[in-house]
Amino acid sequence: MKTLRRILFATAALVLFSTVNSSAQIVVRARLYHRGPAFVRPVRPSANHVWIEGEWVPRGRTYVERPGYWAAAPRPHAVWIAGHWDRRRGGYAWVPGYWR
Question: I need a surface site. Which of 44, 49, 77, 84 has the fewest CB within 10 A?
Answer without folding.
Answer: 77
